[in-house]
Amino acid sequence: INRFCDSISEYVANIDKAPDKNISANLFFGEVSAGYDVLFSVWLQSKDSRLRTIVAEAIGQMALILPKDKIEEQSTRLISAIVALYRKHSASDHLLITECLCNILAAHLQSGCQIADSLADNVMTTLHSQACTFTDFNNTSSIKNHNEVLRCFAVIGPITSNRLIQFLLNKLDNPNEKIRVGTLNILKHIINASGIPQDKMPLIISGLKILLNDTNNKVKQTLAQVISAMAHHEYLDLEGGQLLIEFIVRQCALIDNLQKAAKPESEVSNLSLRTMCGNVLQLVTTTVPHMERVLWPTLLEFIVPMKYNTAAGVVCRSAAFLAEKKQSEDASDYYLDYTNQVNLPKPVALLARLLVLAGLPKRANGQGLHVLNFMLTMSSNINEAFTDMWDNVLPRMITYLEENSSGDEWNQKAWEDLVLKLLTKSLEEVEDDNWTCELGGEMSSQIAMYENLPEEKNFLYKCIGVILRKTTNKAFVEKQLNVMFSTVNHSNQTEREGCAMGMGFASYAHLDAVLHKLEDVPKREMVRKSTGFMGFMKDKSEADVERIKSTLILCYGYVTYYSPVGIELNILRVINPQFGNVKDAIVKQNLIRAVILIGHAMHKDHLKFDFTFNKRDDLISHMLNYIKAEHGTAISTETRSLAMDACATLVKLEPNLDENLTGTLVKICAKGIYSVNAAEHAEELIEKTLRSFNLLLCEILENKNSSKDFFVLYEERERDRSLQSLTAILEWYLEHIQSGNEDGPPGKFGSVIARLAPRVSDPLASIRESAICCTQLIFRIEMQYEGIDTDELIEAMDLLIERCKKEETTVITSVVNDYGKVLAKKIREEELVEFVYLLLDGLLDHQPQSALGTSAIINAVLRARAGSLRGEVPQLIQKFHEKLEKVDDDKCTKGILKSFRVLASYHLLPVLDVLLDFKLPYDRHVTGFWKALAEEEDMLGSVCSHFMDLLKKSFPYQEQGRKELIKIATEQPISIACGFNELFKVPTAASIAKRDHAQLFSALLLRVGTCIKVQQVKEKSSKAYGINPMKTAVEAFRGFLTLTEEFEVLDSIESANGWEKIRDEKSCSDAVDIITSALCQSILLKPSIVKVIACLMPSLNGPYDNQRLVVAAFFAEIINQRCLGELGQADIIINCLLSRLIDDDLKVRMFCVRGLGNVASVGREHFNAYSTTVLSALMSGIDEKDDSDCDITLEAMSGLSRIIAELDETHVRSILINISLKIRPCFEKNEKKVRASAFMLFGNLSKFGDGPSKVPFLEQIQANIVSLLLHLNENDPDVIKACKFTLRSIGPLLNSSEIDDMFQNYLLDDATLYYGEFLNNLTRLLVSEYKEKTSLYVTGATRFFKSEWEEIRANAAILIGYYLGNLPGELRETISKEHVCNGEYKLIIFMSSTIGIRY
Predict the structure, then answer these.
(1) What's the confidence (pLDDT) of residue 1342?
(2) Which residues contact 974 (CB under 8 A, 6 or more apart)?
C-alpha cells in the first residue's frame, strides 16, 4: 500500500510527463480511504512496534491521496496518534514516524485544511524537542530524521505562521544551549525555505536581538549561520539589520581562547567562530548583490574602534571589495560624504588607523594585504593627493607582502621602513602642514587605543616621529613630544623603543626641541616627590625612576643616530656617568642599546666620511664588564646578547682593534655564551645570544681584527654552540674571499679541522652534521683561495652529511672512516704535523664515542700520510703515551695502539729507538706498544732482526776500575731484553719465534752469557737504574722458551735452579752447565742446530769473554749431544774449540777442553779423525799453569777418561806413558776432584796395559801404586772410590793372581775397607811377589812423610811399618836405613795425635 500510494503521488506530481494525463488522485479516494480505515483503526494499534512503524509509513503516503473531507475528519485523531508514537518508539524508529508526520502536514497544506491551535502547539513542541536532540552524524538514520524534522517546520509554517514564529522566538529566550541552537537551526531552515511571510521578517529580526550578546560560541555560530541565510533573503535591508552585521564583525574580532586545556569536540573555539564569521562576511559581500547597500559604507565604521581590532583585516577585505567594485563602476556613492555620514571615521582617523594596521601585516591571519588593498581602493576618499603615488607604491608593497609574508624569515623592520616611507611620501604629496598636524594629532589621540598593544603603540610612535620630522609647527612638535613621553609605558621595552625611535625621527628636523625635552625629563619626570601626610606617599618609586631613565637613555641613543649633526660626544657626556654602577638590568640593557646606536651613528657609512672614534675601546670595556657581571652558567636576560651586538657595532669603527683587546673580547664573549647551561625557558635567549656572538666574530673578521689564535676559539664544553659559531665564521670567509688569493688561507685551517674531528662521531646527529659541514666549508675556502672551481672529493662530503644523520653505530663508524680518508687527502703538507698533534688531543674528548672516533680518524690519516712524519716520531709516541695515561676506555686505548702500529709500519726503526728510550721497567702503556708491534707478524720479524743487530753492535757493558775491573751494564741491551720479554708475551709472536728460532735462540743465549758477572747501572739518572741485567736477559729467554712451548726445557732448568744460579757469580759456571745442557733438549733446536751453530760461531772469537764462555759451553754440550743429529757440524765445532784453547779466559778454555772431551760422544768416525789432536789438547790441559782452581785440569782428565774409553790401543800407545806421567802430579793436588779424576784416568789407562805397552805401563803402575794405596784411606770418598777403581783395574796387570784377587774382593766401591789389615796382607804379598821393588816402595812411601795431609803421612807410616815388618831380613839390607830413619824422625817431630796413634 505504501509503495502504491507513493507511486500514485509521484505519477500525479509529474502528470505533464505521464502517458495518461486523465489519471488523478481522485480516482483512488475510495480504495485508499477504505484501506486507511483498516490500517489506522486496527493495525496501528498493534503491540508489534515494527508493524506500527511500517503502518505509520504507509498512512503517511495514504494521507497525500485522501480526500479533503477525510483529512479534516481524521486530522485531530491522526496527528495525535502519530505524535504519540514518538513516546512509544526508540530513536532508531523516529525517522519513519517523522516522515509520516511530514506527509500528513503536507496533506493538510495541500488540501488547505487547518490544524487546531492546540494540536499545532503539540506538534511544534514534539518536533522542537526532536530538533534540539543531539544528532549522531555517524548515523545516517539520525541525520535523515533531523532533516525531516526541519522539513516538518517548513511545511507547518504556511499553515500556522504566526504561532510558529511566536513559538520559536519564545524558545530563543531559553537558557538551555541545545534549545537555543535547535531553535536557530529551525529558523535558518525556515528562512532558507522561504517559509516566512515578508511581513513577519521584522519580527524575526527583532526576536534575534536577544541573542546578539549571547556568550555561548555554539549559539553564536548558529546565529551567524542564520544571519547569513537572512542576508540572502534581504532581511538585513530592514531595520535592525545593521545590528546583525555588527554581530558578525564583533565575532570576527574575537581573540583566541587563553585556556590550554583540551576541549570537547562539540565545543566551538573562538578561532573557528572567528574564521567562520569572517567567511560569512566575505560571502555575503561578494555573492549577495543587494548587500552592497547594507555594507557600504557601514563597514568603515568598524575599522577604527578597538573593540573590532582583530576584525580589521576581515572588514578591510570586504570593504576593499565593495570600494573597488564601486570605483570600477564609477558609482555615485563611492565618494563618501563625511559631513552627513557622521558615523564614518574622518579621513585622518581612518589613515592613522590603517597605517598602524599595515605596520603589523601578519596580525589577524595576515591583515596587511587586506589593509593595503583597502587603502589602494580608498585613496581618493582619504586624500586625493595620495591617489597617483599610492597607485604606484601600494601594488609593489602588496606584491612584496605576498612573496615574503609566508616564510619564516620575515623582516618586520624592513616592512616597517616601507610603511614609514609610504607615510613620508604621502605627507610630501599633500604638502599641507595643517593636514600633517591634523594627522599627527589624530595619531596622538589614538595612542590610548593601544594601551595593551605595545607593538601597535610602538609603530604608532614611529609614525608620529615621521610626522614631526615633516612638520614645521614648533608648538605642535613640542606638544607631541610631551604626549609621546607621557603616554609611553616605561615598563614595556617595545613601547620604549617606539617612543625612542619616534624621538629620533623628530630630532632630524627638530633636534633642539627633542634635546630640550630629554633634558627636561630628569627635572620633571625622574624626581621622587613626596606627597601626603609627612611624606609617606611618594609620587614615583625608585623602580619608576629607573624605568624612565631607561627610556631616556634609549631616546638619547636614537637621537644620536638620527640627528643630522654629530652630537655623539655630547650624548656620551650625558650617559657616560650611567655606565659605572648600574643596578637595574633594564637600564643596563638600554645603555647597551644606546651604545649600539652611537656605534652605528659613528660609522663612516652613516657619516659619509671617515671618523676615528677614540672613545670606542672604553665602550667595549663597559660592554665586556656587563658580560662578565652576568651569571656564569645561567641566562635570564638579553644583556649578553645586546652587549655582543654593541661590540659587533663598535669593532667596525676606526681605529682597528688592538690584537690583545680582540683576543680578550672573543674569549670573554665566548665564555659568556658557551658556559651557559641549556634550559627550556632560556632556549630563545641562548639562541639569540649565540647569533649575536657569531655576528661579532664575523664583524671582527670583516674588519681584519682577527688575532693569531682566532680560529682556536672552538671550545669543547658546549659543542653545538661552538660549531654554530665556527659555521658562521666559515660561511663569512667563503662569502668574502677572493679567488686565487696569493697570500693563501688566512689561518691555520688544519688546526680547526683537528678540533672538529672528534665531533664527527659525536652522540648528537646535529653536531656530527655541523662538524662535517664546517670541514667542507674549510676545504671550499681553500679551493677558493687556490682558484679551484670543483673538487669531487669535497662535493662528495654531502653524502657524508646525509649519512651522519643516522643513528646506527655501523653507519657512524663508516662515516668516521670515510671522513678520515678525506682529511688524509686534503690536509696540506705544511699543516700536517700540527694537525696530527691537535688531533691527538681529541683522544681525551669528554664523549667516549668522540674519542673513539678520533682514534679512527688518526688511523686513517696516519695510514695515508705517516710517511711525512718521520721527524716527528719521538714526539708522536710521547703523545701517544701521554694520552694512554689519561684514557680510560678500552676501545679508545686499542685505537691509539692501532695508530701507533700504523706509524711503526712506516718508521719502524725510529719507533723502536723511542721505545727503547723509555724508562725501565716499562709501564703498562709502553708494554701495550710492544704488544701492538708483536701482533703484526711482518713487523715483529723486523723488530726482532733489528734487536739482534743492535745486540751485536752495542756494548753490553763498560769496564770500570783500575786495580779490579768491574763490568757495568749499558742501557740499550737491557732495554732490548725488556722489549723482547714484552714481545714474547703475545701469543701471535709464536710464529716469528719459531720461524727465526735459530737467530733468536742464539741472540738470547749470548745475552744471558753477556750478563754473567755484569753489575746493574749505578747512575740514578739512567733509565735502567736499579734494573738487574741478568734478570732481564733471563726473563727474555724464559719468555722465548715459553712462547715456543719448550716447557720441558724450562722445567729442567727450573728444577736445577739454573736461572737463580746464573745470577750468582759463584755458581754461574754451574748454571751455564745446567742451562746449556737443558737447552740441548729443545725440540726446536734440533732442526735449526746448523743455523744456531753458524749464529754462535762468530761470538766464540768475539771480544766479550762471557759470550765466548757461553758459546764454548753450549758447543761443548752440543758435542756431548752428538750435535743433535747433525754430526757434520762436529768438525766445525771441534775446530772452533781447538782454536780457543789459547783463549785468555780460563773458563772459556775449560769449556773448550770439556767440549773436546765430549768428542767421545760423536762416534768413532769423527772421533778417530780427531783423536790425536784432541788427546794432545787434553794432555796440554792437564798441566795448565794458570789454572789455579784446576778446572781445566779436571775437564782435561775427565775428557781423557772418556776419550780413552773409546780409543784403540794403537791410538794411545805412543802417548800412554806421557799421559801417565802428566797425571801423576795430580794425584797429590789439593783439589779432591782433581785427585779423584787423576786416579780414575790412570785406572782407565790400564785397559792399554795388557798389550804392546804392558811393560812400560807396568812400570807406571809400580811407580804409582804407593800413591794409590796411601790415598785409599783419605777423607774424600770420591778419591777413595777412584783409588779402588784404579787398583781393581791394574790388578790383572800385576802378574799376581793373589794380589789381583785381593784387589777385586776387598776394594769394592761400597764395601768397608779395614785399611791396616788390608795393608798388612797386601805388603806381605808385595814383598813376596816384588822383592826387587822393595827399595822403590819404601823410598816412595818415605816421600809422603812430607805430605801436607796428615792422613797421607799417617798412611805412609803405616805402609812402611807393615812393609818393613813383613820384609825378610835379607831384603832389609837393600833399604837405605838413613833415608827411612830421617824421614821417620821428622815425622815424629811434627807428629799429630792422628799420626802418633797410627804410628
Answers:
(1) 81
(2) 920, 1017, 1024, 1027, 1029, 1032
